[in-house]
Backbone:
C-alpha cells in the first residue's frame, strides 16, 4: 500500500484542479440541473419518451427505412474504402519515405483532414457536391483519410525495412518494392485499422443526414421535426441494428484475415 | 500447366474479386457516387464563392467575443459531459466486474442474481453507447430546448456507455487476487475496489478517461449542428448565411481546439504513464 | 573484368571507419571467399559491390560501368544484374513462397508483369525449378511464415538463383544453417557460378568452408585487405593474424555467430499461422 501512503501534493493539486474545472463547467453552462428533477419535468420527459412507443412498423415506412439504411451502409463502406486508399497514399510520405519535407507536408495534410469533424466536412461537401449521399461519402472519406493515414504511417514506421531494401537493392522500381516488400508486412494491421474505422463510420454515416448528406439521419431529422416520434424510434432501432451488424461483420472479416 | 503447378489460391481470389466488383456497383449507385457533381457549374460557383469569402478572416470584436464564448461553451460542455459520464460509468463498470462479485465466492444464493444484474448492466451500456451522441442531443433538444444542457446530457449518456464498458473491461483484466482476498476477508465491495483493484488499474482508467475527454471535445464541437450550443451552432449559422469569413475563422478555431485537446491529452497521459 | 575497386573507403555517420583503401579486382567467373572477424568490414564491402552503398572515397566499377556516375535508370539496371544472398532472409512472413522467389526478377520485369504476378504468379514453373534444386518444390504455394528458419534461408537462395545475376554476392549465407546444410548450400552457390560462368563473392564466417570451396580467398581485417591468395596458399599463421582478436579459428562445426542486430525478421519470431 505504499502507493496509497505516498499521495503527493501534486496529486492533491491535480484532483483539486479537476474538480474546479468540472464545477466551473457546470457553473458556466448555467445548467438547470435541479429543474430537471422536478415532478413536472419528469412527467414531461416521461410523456415524451412514451410517444416513441410503439415504433412505427407499417410496411411503407419500413421500406423507406430499409432504403435509407442501405444508403447509410453504402456511404460507410465507400467512404472507408476511399479513405483507406487516400490514407495509404499519404501514409508513405508521412512515414518519411520521401524525405523530410514530404514527411512534414503529409503530416500537416493528415492533421488538417483529421481535425475537422465529419459533420463539418459534411456541411462543406453539401455545398461542393449538392445535397445527398455523395456529399456524406466525401465528408466521411476526408476525415477518415486523416485518421487512417496517421495510423497507416505509424504501422509503416514500425515495420522492418529489410525486405523492401533488398528488393530496391535488386533494382526493383519504388511501386513494386512497396507492393512486394512492405505491403505484406503492414497489410494485416492496415486492414484491421480500416475495419475498425468502418465500425465508427457506420455510426457517423447514420447521422450525417442531419446536415443533408443522405442516409438514415435525414429520415430521423424529418420525423423528429414533424413530431412523429414513433417513426423516429423505428429509425433509431435501425441505426442500432446496423451498428451491431457492422461490428459483427468487421470482427468476422478480421478473424478471417488473421489480423 | 500441370496440376501441381496450378495456384490453389487462384479460384478463391477470382471469386472474391468478382464478388467485390459485383457489390461495388450497387454501392456506388446507392451512394449516388458522381464525382462529376463536384465540377458542375452550379456547385463550383457556390463553393468558389464561399471559399473566396474565406479571406479575410472575420475578426470584428463582436464576432470574436461570440467566438470566445462559444469556444468556452464547447470546452465546458465536453468537461461537464465527461463528468456526468464518469458518474454513470463507475457504478455500472463496477457492477460488470466479476472479480468484485461477492456471490461468486459463496456460499449463499447462487450466482444467478449477479449474472442477471451483470447482463442487464451490459445491455443498458450497449443501448446508451449504441445511439450516437448527436441523436441523443437531437432528442434532448426536444425535451429541454435549445442550449448546451442537451449537449451535456447527450455526451454524458453516450460516453457513460463507452466508459462503463471499458472500465468493466479494464477492471476484469486486472489481477483479481488482491480484491478476492479482501472480499474473502469480509470487506465490502467498495473497499475491495479501492484497495484491491485501483492500485493496479487506476492509471489505465484515468488515461482512458482523458482520451475520452479529448474525443468529447471533438464531439461537442459538432453538437451545435442540432442546436445544442457551442462552436457548432455558430458554424451552422455562418454556413447557412454562406459567410465564408466567419466560417473560416470558426474552422481555424476548430483546428486549434482539436489539436490542443490532442496535445493536452497526450501530455497528460504521458505524465501518468 | 567483373569488378574493380580502387582505394575504396567508407566511414559510418557515427565516425566508425568500416573500409579504408581497399583495392580489389576480380575477373568474370572467379569465385572469391571473404573471411575475417565480425566487424572487419565484410558486409560493408559486399554492400559496395552490390551498388547499394556509395563509398566515401575511391573508384568503383561494376560489370563494366561506374554505378555512381550513372543515371538512376542505369543504376537500377545494373542492380538488377547483381544478386545478393542476405544474412537474414529479407522476406515478408505473410508472403507466399512462389511470390518470394519470383521477386528475384522484379528488377528485370516491366511494371505490368510485376503487378500481374501479385494477382496470379506469372512463372510458377520457373520458381518451382529453382526450389526443386533446394528440395523445396512441394512448398511452392505455402506461406513463408509456415517454414522453418533454414527453409526460409533456402527460399531466399532460390530467389537469387531465379534472378540469374551476372554477379552473385552472398553475405554470410549459411549463418542460420546446420553444418551439413551449410556445406550443401555453399557447394550449390559454387556450382551455380561455375555452370553459368558468373562471378561469386561470398563472405563466410567458417574458414574451413571458404578454403574447401573457393579457389581464391580474401582476408579482411579492420576495414582493409590483409591477404588475397589462392586457397592453397593461405597459411595457418595468416589465419591466426586475421582472427587475432577472436581467439581461435571459427569453423563450420563451431558455434555460429549470432545474426547481426540489424538483420530483418527472423523466421522463427512469428508463430506459424494457418499452415495447412
Residues:
Amino acid at each position: 500500500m505504499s502507493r496509497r501512503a505516498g499521495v503527493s501534493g501534486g496529486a492533491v493539486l491535480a484532483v483539486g484542479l479537476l474538480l474546479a474545472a468540472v464545477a466551473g463547467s457546470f457553473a458556466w453552462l448555467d445548467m438547470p440541473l435541479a429543474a430537471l428533477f422536478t415532478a413536472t419535468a419528469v412527467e414531461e420527459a416521461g410523456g415524451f419518451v412514451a410517444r416513441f412507443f410503439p415504433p412505427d412498423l407499417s410496411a411503407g415506412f419500413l421500406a423507406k427505412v430499409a432504403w435509407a439504411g442501405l444508403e447509410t451502409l453504402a456511404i460507410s463502406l465507400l467512404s472507408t474504402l476511399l479513405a483507406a486508399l487516400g490514407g495509404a497514399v499519404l501514409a508513405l510520405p508521412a512515414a518519411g519515405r520521401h524525405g523530410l519535407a514530404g514527411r512534414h507536408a503529409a503530416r500537416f495534410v493528415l492533421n488538417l483532414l483529421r481535425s475537422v469533424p465529419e459533420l463539418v466536412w459534411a456541411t462543406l461537401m453539401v455545398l461542393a457536391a449538392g445535397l445527398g449521399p455523395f456529399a456524406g461519402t466525401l465528408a466521411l472519406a476526408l476525415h477518415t483519410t486523416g485518421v487512417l493515414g496517421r495510423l497507416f504511417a505509424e504501422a509503416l514506421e514500425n515495420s522492418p525495412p529489410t525486405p523492401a531494401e533488398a528488393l530496391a537493392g535488386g533494382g526493383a522500381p519504388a511501386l513494386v518494392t512497396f507492393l512486394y516488400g512492405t505491403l505484406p508486412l503492414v497489410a494485416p494491421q492496415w486492414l484491421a485499422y480500416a475495419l475498425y474505422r468502418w465500425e465508427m463510420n457506420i455510426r457517423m454515416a447514420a447521422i450525417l443526414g442531419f446536415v443533408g448528406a443522405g442516409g438514415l439521419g435525414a429520415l430521423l431529422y424529418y420525423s423528429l421535426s414533424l413530431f412523429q416520434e414513433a417513426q423516429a424510434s423505428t429509425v433509431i432501432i435501425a441505426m442500432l441494428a446496423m451498428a451491431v451488424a457492422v461490428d459483427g461483420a468487421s470482427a468476422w472479416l478480421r478473424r478471417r484475415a488473421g489480423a | 500447366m500441370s496440376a501441381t503447378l496450378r495456384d490453389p489460391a487462384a479460384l478463391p481470389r477470382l471469386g472474391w474479386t468478382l464478388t467485390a466488383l459485383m457489390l461495388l456497383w450497387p454501392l456506388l449507385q446507392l451512394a449516388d457516387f458522381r464525382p462529376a457533381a463536384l465540377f458542375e457549374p452550379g456547385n463550383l460557383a457556390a463553393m468558389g464563392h464561399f471559399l473566396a469569402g474565406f479571406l479575410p478572416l472575420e475578426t470584428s470584436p463582436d464576432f470574436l467575443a461570440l467566438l470566445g464564448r462559444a469556444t468556452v461553451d464547447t470546452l465546458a460542455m465536453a468537461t461537464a459531459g465527461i463528468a456526468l459520464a464518469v458518474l454513470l460509468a463507475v457504478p455500472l463498470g463496477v457492477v460488470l466486474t466479476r472479480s468484485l462479485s461477492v456471490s461468486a465466492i459463496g456460499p449463499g444464493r447462487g450466482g444467478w442474481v449477479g449474472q442477471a444484474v451483470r447482463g442487464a448492466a451490459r445491455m443498458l451500456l450497449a443501448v446508451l453507447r449504441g445511439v450516437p451522441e448527436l441523436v441523443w442531443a437531437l432528442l434532448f433538444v426536444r425535451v429541454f430546448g435549445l442550449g448546451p444542457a442537451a449537449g451535456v446530457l447527450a455526451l454524458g449518456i453516450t460516453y457513460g456507455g463507452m466508459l462503463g464498458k471499458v472500465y468493466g473491461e479494464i477492471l476484469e483484466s486486472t489481477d483479481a487476487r488482491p480484491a478476492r482476498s479482501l472480499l474473502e476477508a469480509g470487506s465490502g465491495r467498495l473497499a475491495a475496489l479501492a484497495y484491491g483493484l485501483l492500485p493496479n488499474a487506476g492509471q489505465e482508467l484515468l488515461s482512458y478517461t482523458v482520451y475520452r475527454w479529448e474525443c468529447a471535445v471533438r464531439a461537442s464541437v459538432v453538437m451545435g449542428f442540432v442546436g445544442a450550443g457551442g462552436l457548432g451552432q455558430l458554424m451552422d449559422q455562418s454556413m447557412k448565411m454562406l459567410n465564408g469569413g466567419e466560417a473560416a475563422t470558426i474552422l481555424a478555431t476548430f483546428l486549434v481546439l482539436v489539436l490542443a485537446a490532442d496535445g493536452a491529452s497526450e501530455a497528460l497521459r504521458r505524465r501518468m504513464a | 573484368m567483373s569488378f574493380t575497386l580502387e582505394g575504396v573507403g567508407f566511414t559510418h555517420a557515427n565516425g566508425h571507419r568500416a573500409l579504408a583503401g581497399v583495392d580489389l579486382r576480380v575477373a568474370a567467373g572467379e569465385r572469391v571467399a571473404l573471411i575475417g572477424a565480425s566487424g572487419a568490414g565484410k558486409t560493408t564491402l559486399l554492400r559496395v559491390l552490390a551498388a547499394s552503398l556509395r563509398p566515401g572515397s575511391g573508384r568503383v566499377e561494376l560489370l563494366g560501368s561506374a554505378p555512381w556516375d550513372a543515371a538512376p535508370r542505369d543504376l537500377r539496371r545494373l542492380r538488377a544484374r547483381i544478386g545478393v544472398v542476405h544474412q537474414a532472409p529479407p522476406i515478408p512472413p505473410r508472403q507466399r513462397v512462389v511470390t518470394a522467389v519470383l521477386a528475384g526478377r522484379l528488377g528485370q520485369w516491366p511494371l505490368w508483369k510485376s503487378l500481374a504476378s501479385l494477382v496470379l504468379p506469372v512463372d510458377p514453373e520457373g520458381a518451382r525449378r529453382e526450389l526443386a534444386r533446394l528440395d523445396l518444390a512441394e512448398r511452392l504455394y505455402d506461406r513463408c511464415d509456415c517454414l522453418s528458419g533454414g527453409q526460409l534461408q533456402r527460399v531466399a537462395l532460390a530467389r537469387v538463383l531465379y534472378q540469374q545475376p551476372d554477379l552473385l554476392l552472398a553475405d554470410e549465407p549459411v549463418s542460420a544453417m546446420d553444418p551439413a546444410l551449410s556445406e550443401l548450400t555453399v557447394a550449390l552457390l559454387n556450382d551455380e557460378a561455375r555452370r553459368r560462368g558468373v562471378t561469386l563473392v561470398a563472405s563466410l564466417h567458417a574458414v574451413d568452408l571458404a578454403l574447401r570451396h573457393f579457389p581464391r580467398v580474401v582476408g579482411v581485417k579492420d576495414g582493409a585487405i590483409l591477404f588475397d591468395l589462392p586457397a592453397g596458399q593461405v597459411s595457418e599463421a595468416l589465419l591466426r593474424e586475421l582472427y587475432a582478436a577472436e581467439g581461435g579459428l571459427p569453423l563450420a562445426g563451431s558455434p555460429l555467430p549470432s545474426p547481426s542486430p540489424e538483420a530483418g525478421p527472423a523466421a522463427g519470431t512469428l508463430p506459424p499461422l494457418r499452415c495447412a
In short: The longest strand of chain C covers residues 17-26. Chain C is about 30% helix and 20% strand. Strands of chain C lie at 3-11, 17-26, 31-35, 57-62, 82-85, 167-171, 199-203, 216-221, 224-230.
